[in-house]
Amino acid sequence: MINYDVVVIGGGVAGYTSALRFLEQGLKTAVVSHGQSAMHFSSGSIDVLSIPQSMAKR
């Protein structure tokens, strides 16, 4: 089982912002989102705010 200190529900601007704040505080954080977030502008957009596992603080 994977354990997290914080699970943020929602991948929009507020969700990503709060997740980044939790990461800065050293908390193991997960973001759960479904469908297109508020950051999705067109079918060709790239999710530049996602943090790859390899770059996330542990």
TrEMBL record:
Domain of life: Bacteria
Class of enzymatic activity (EC top level): oxidoreductase
Residues annotated as domain FAD-dependent oxidoreductase 2 FAD-binding: 5-54
Keyword Flavoprotein included in the entry's annotation: yes
Tagged with keyword Hydrolase: no
Keywords, in A-Z order: Flavoprotein, Oxidoreductase
EC numbers, comma separated: 1.1.5.3
GO molecular function, one term: glycerol-3-phosphate dehydrogenase (quinone) activity
InterPro entries: FAD-dep_OxRdtase_2_FAD-bd, FAD/NAD-bd_sf
Protein name: Anaerobic glycerol-3-phosphate dehydrogenase subunit B
